[in-house]
Amino acid sequence: MTRRPWARPVSLTAASLASLAALAAPAQAAGRTQPTAGSATAAAAVDHATWQKDCRQVMDQALPYLKQRIAAARPGEKQAVVLDIDNTALETDFGFSYPQPANTPVLDVARYAQDHGVSLFFVTARPGILYWPTEYNLEHDGYHVAGLHVRGLVDLFKDVAAYKTAQRAGIENDGYTIIANIGNSPTDLSGGHAEKTFKLPDYDGQLS
């Protein structure tokens, strides 16, 4: 499911916010390692400052690569970066709020890419019911959403890694070269259809 050509701000009631809170964080859980006993939350695994430092280290590797790859774009090449959402593009497991704040190290790299003509596509395991709140959240935080892929009813029963791989293949079929794929889980990055992958920390599956 891709982004509509127009964005529609959403007005969320308390009930819908509660639904979003309940659905957003667990949405990536399928296909991931479950937290071990005594470590049910990300906060128990790592503090926010450490997570941000660890994310920054990965993005400090991504940015020089992107600068070089963007500068080497072939004539007519449509470059794209694919990003996961939960605890990749957005901070999800460090206290819920809406709109959720961007993961700053990732946003900084994404802004460089979009400012240099690269299209940003978001591939998430979130269900389709969260399409509009998610798109609004991303745009609110400063991401230019070229496409948002969420799981439809059929996709909910598919392996997450296979679903995400298929979405990237579809982006390529639309004529884009995916120069980077950024996520925090192996299910975000496996299956190919990207020139280079960058894995953010998930602390052995304790971060959704």
From TrEMBL:
InterPro entries: Acid_phosphat_B-like (IPR005519), HAD-like_sf (IPR036412), HAD_sf (IPR023214)
Domain of life (superkingdom): Bacteria
Signal peptide: 1-29
UniProtKB keywords: Hydrolase, Signal
GO molecular function: hydrolase activity
Protein name: Hydrolase
Organism of derivation: Streptomyces dangxiongensis
